[in-house]
Every structure is written in C-alpha cells, then in structure tokens.
Design brief:
The protein is an alpha/beta fold. About 30% of the residues lie in helices and about 20% in strands.
C-alpha cells in the first residue's frame, strides 16, 4: 500500500492550533503529517499492515512545543551541578541548606573531579535570610577549593575567598563597566572596598566561565545532550541555545555530528563576541538544520535581572539593593547607544536575526532606538527581531513593538516565581501588575511568544502555559495583574505556532496540518479543556519529533557514538 501511514492518532482531544474544527485523527508517514480529519477516512485511506493505531484514550495531542528562548547548555548544566533551587523545583530554604547542597555535590562523582564546587539556582527572595550568601558563608563550605553559588537569574552569584582570589578581585579592583563587585564596607580611597563575595552582571560573568571550565571533561561534553533530553521531557521538539560563544557554537555542531540531537536546536551567538571576528560570516546562519542544529543570528544583552535588581529601569526600584542609594534604577550592560546601533545594524546587513535581552524599560528604549535606526539604514525587511523577556515593557513600548515589527518574547513564569518579590520589593504593586504584559501584546495584534529561559527556570512547558493563564504567584498565591491574563489557546500559541513563526519556521512547525513535520506532544489533558487553575497539573506523556518518540527516552539512544573533544577556551557562561 503506497499511502500506508506509520502511525494514526485517535481517541483524544486533538488541538491543531490551526483554523477549523477539531479532527478525530491524525496520520503520520515518514516524519510528516499526511492526514488530519475523520477517523473513518484516516483508517480507509491510510491504514496498512504496518500502521500503528495509537489510541490516545482521552489524552490530548498538540503540536510539539517550540522554545522561544532558552539555553540548551544551561539546561544540561542545571542537571549537572548542585541544585540550589527553592520549592517546587528544589528544597533550599536558607543559607544552611544551600551550604549542605554544595558540600554534598562536592563529594559526588562529578563534584570530586571538579576544580570548583559549584551550584545553581539560589534565590535571595526565597532564602530565610532574605540575602545572598557571602564569601564568609561560602568559606564554611570550603577554604581549599573555590566555591561558586549562582543566583537563579544567572546574572548574579557569590564566591568564597578563594574564588575571589582566582578571579583577581580584591579591594584594589574597580567595578567593571556594566557590573558590580559588592563590598563589605564603604570605599576608603585608594581602596574600592573589600569584596563581600557577591558579584553582579559583568563582574559575575567570569566566575561561571572559570568554574565550568573546571568541570570534568565528560561532564562538559554531555551538557548539550543532557539539555536536549531534559527539554524533550517537557514536550519541546525545538529548543534554543540563546547566547553562545563562537567556540561553543562549534562544540554544538561537533556534538551533533557525533550524536545527532533528539530535537532541533537553534543557536544565537553573542553579538559582542563578534566585533573582531576575522570571518565574513562567523555565525553561519542558515534556515536548514545539519544534524539537528542551525545558527540563526545573534543575541545582544542590554541589561540585567529585575529579580536581582540589576535590570535598567527609567523609574527607581521600590527598594534598592544593598549598597545602592535611593533612586537607584539599575544600569545598562552597554552604555554607548552607538555600540548597540552598530551591533543591530551589522546583523541586519548580514541577514542575522537579532534577539536582545531587555528586561528593564530603559534597556527596551535603548533597543528600540537601535532597531529603528538600523532599519532606516537597511531598508524594509521581514527580520522578526525579538525583545527577549521585556518584563517591564510599558504600553507605549508594546505599541512600538507592533510599529517596528519586534516580537516580544515574555518570560511569563516571572509572575509565578517572582510576582510576590516584584510587588513587595522590586517594583511595587502598580508596576508589578504589568510584568510580562501579554494582553497588551494581543491588543496590538502581536503574535507574542513565551519562554522558560532555562536554566533560570526548569524548561517546564506546562508552567509556561499556566503562568500566562493564571498569573498566580508562588508564595502568596495572589494574581499579579489579572488584566494581563490570556486564555489557554493564546498561551498554547505562544509556544507553538507563534514561536515557530519567530524562527521563520511556521511553514513546517507549530500546528497540526498536512505537510508539516510530525513534531507532536501528548499531554494528560488538553489545556483548553480544563479549568485555568488545573493547567498546572497537566503532565507530558510523550514527545514525538518528526514521527519518532524522543520522550520517554528511546532504546535506540543506548550506546551512542563517542562525543567530540571539548573546544579550546570554552565559555560556559549563560547570558540568560
């Protein structure tokens, strides 16, 4: 039978995320969707001796989820080093439990062979002390090995005394542009003040690079593979390596050549690392995947983290962080507007898609100026420039997104993880109500996307959906800005068809339609069929990439090919 399908799904809620009535069946052949419609027609036209009928038994079939922004290597890192997350993703509650986690990891198989003792995910907003760990508290973990505790934002962290020494930071070290070394006491010239161990932004960035370089080689080589497996577990069939170095882009390609990824990976190189690149096209952007990997463009980082109070705002923080005066508004990562304009303009000229990390509204202003200026120079074009996070976007800025063709990609889980922190400490009630302003985006006709930004949060697709529909906070359980809630279908679109469109891949991904890739996810229930507060309880049952099950882990992944050598001077930092 020439038209024999490999697989026919039926017996459940089929959410196509496309126009038209819900079908009864979907047929898959050679990795593509070949039929969407009635069950009888599917069986009559597509069932053959080798066709497997898959009864969903009341479960739901949706397009595979598309990660609009995350860090593949960071997801693998999250699974490799000490888990310092608070509930529900971990169980760190205070400095003592954080220390215990670091000590335990130091004595683990990977930790024993690591130069640094390192953990990820603590959140000062969730620690009993309400403060970052200091060098003295990390010295209690070890004085013979450098120790690094990475904040959940991946924009701050703390190191012990030996870590400070390895970084070359002492009282004579000036704060770098775009970063802060927090101090034990006020500076008394010529001293800048003895570091207390807490580092922000560009002062922090060298720490994870040093610490990750000190991981055992086997752990480094498995980061991308672990990341892909973790993302598949949450239903993602396309993921992002969002802000990598040229060396790590090559490592990604080398890894995929040795062990092709279970799912597609789209990579973006940090724009500031390309200024002196000798090659004409150091990115190698392409719409086509090779061994499951393609590069798409560049990422700019223009400010920091609102939950860490390093994002760049036009209006002061409600409560400044320690050591900062009243009226503190954060700070830019790149002070010179002309530098930002040059980075965006170069990308437009070379045909690279641009993503920009912009959390604070001042950083968004800077980015919009650069986009408008670069577009005037380059002329019209369908560039699908992306404003990553856009946490504190004002209504007028959302209007400018629509005017300039900028796609906002919201980190919607902020409403859950840090909604209470924003209300009481960071922004206050009024400004907190409009973080991740998805409803404003819909009002402007924008096909916004939503992302998990893993490793900042787990790559939890269900939490991405739930947070948009309920906007309910983790600790106090209040709804932050109910007027910004969206319905379940709009939330689903944000991680399916809208995210596929963000990647210029809407012709092959994002909906269940004939001719598209059979990238699919089976859920325990349809998000459209349960109450808003029940979405969080949905589970991912199966993830299917091009017609092939990739979660639960397939048996054919056993005995994989040897991984490639690690790149020289690896840069495993994460500009989340």
């Amino acid at each position: 039978m020439a038209d024999q399908a490999d697989l026919i799904f039926h017996g459940g809620d089929i959410v196509t995320v496309a126009d038209g009535p819900a079908p009864e069946a979907v047929a898959v052949k050679d990795g593509l969707i070949v039929f969407v419609g009635g069950l009888d027609e599917a069986v009559d036209g597509w069932q053959g001796p080798r066709t497997r009928l898959r009864d969903l038994a009341g479960q739901a079939l949706l397009p595979g989820f598309v990660d609009a922004h995350g860090h593949l290597g960071g997801i693998g890192l999250q699974a490799t080093i000490a888990n310092l997350l608070a509930a529900p993703d971990g169980d760190v509650t205070g400095i003592a439990s954080l220390q215990d986690k670091l000590r335990a990891w130091a004595d683990s198989p990977v930790g024993r062979d690591s130069e640094w003792i390192v953990g990820f995910g603590y959140d000062d907003a969730m620690l009993a002390e309400g403060a970052h760990p200091t060098r003295d508290e990390l010295d209690e973990v070890s004085t013979t090995r450098p120790v690094l505790a990475i904040h959940q934002s991946f924009h701050l962290g703390a190191v012990n005394s030996l870590g400070l020494k390895r970084l070359g930071y002492d009282a004579t070290t000036r704060d770098p542009e775009g970063g802060v070394i927090r101090r034990r006491e006020l500076a008394v010239p010529p001293s800048y003040g003895e570091p207390d161990g807490v580092l922000e932004e560009k002062a922090f960035n060298p720490a994870p690079e040093l610490a990750m370089a000190g991981l055992p080689e086997a752990a480094l080589l498995s980061l991308f593979i672990k990341g892909a497996e973790s993302a598949a577990r949450f239903g993602f069939t396309t993921v992002q390596e969002g802000g990598t170095s040229p060396a790590n882009l090559q490592a990604l390609r080398d890894t995929a050549a040795a062990v092709p990824f279970l799912i597609d990976v789209v990579a973006y190189v940090k724009a500031d690392l390309l200024a002196d690149a000798p090659e004409e096209d150091p990115v190698g952007a392409s719409p086509e995947y090779v061994n499951g990997v393609r590069a798409a463009g560049v990422k700019l980082v223009l400010d920091g983290s609102p939950q860490g109070r390093t994002a760049w705002l036009t209006t002061p923080y409600l409560t400044p962080p320690p050591g900062q005066p009243e009226g503190y508004r954060g700070y830019p990562a790149v002070e010179d507007d002309s530098t930002v304009l040059k980075q965006v303009g170069t990308a437009y000229a070379k045909g690279w898609q641009v993503l920009a990390h912009v959390n604070g509204d001042a950083a968004i202003d800077q980015f919009l100026r650069a986009v408008e200026g670069a577009a005037e120079l380059a002329g019209p074009g369908d560039r699908r420039t992306v404003a990553i996070h856009a946490q504190t976007a004002r209504r007028d800025q959302v209007e400018d997104f629509a005017r300039l063709g900028v796609i906002p990609s919201f980190f919607s889980m902020h409403t859950y993880y840090w909604g209470d922190w924003y209300r009481g400490t960071v922004l206050g009630e009024e400004r907190a109500a409009t973080i991740s302003p998805a409803r404003w985006a819909l009002d402007q006709g924008l096909a916004y996307t939503s992302h998990h930004d893993a490793p900042v949060a787990l790559p939890n697709s269900i939490a991405v959906l739930s947070s948009q529909v309920t906007r309910r906070t983790r600790t106090e359980g209040v709804v932050v800005g109910p007027e910004q809630c969206v319905d379940a279908l709009d939330a689903v679109r944000s991680i399916t068809v809208n995210a596929a469109r963000q990647y210029f891949e809407e012709d092959r991904k994002g909906t269940i339609e004939v001719g598209k890739l059979a990238d699919l996810v089976v859920l325990s229930a349809s998000p459209l069929a349960v109450g808003a507060e029940e979405i969080k309880d949905i589970t991912v049952v199966e993830t299917i990439k091009a017609g092939r099950t990739v979660h639960p882990a397939p048996a054919w992944r056993a005995g994989t090919t040897r991984l490639p050598d690690t790149p020289r001077e690896p840069q495993w930092g994460c500009s989340c």
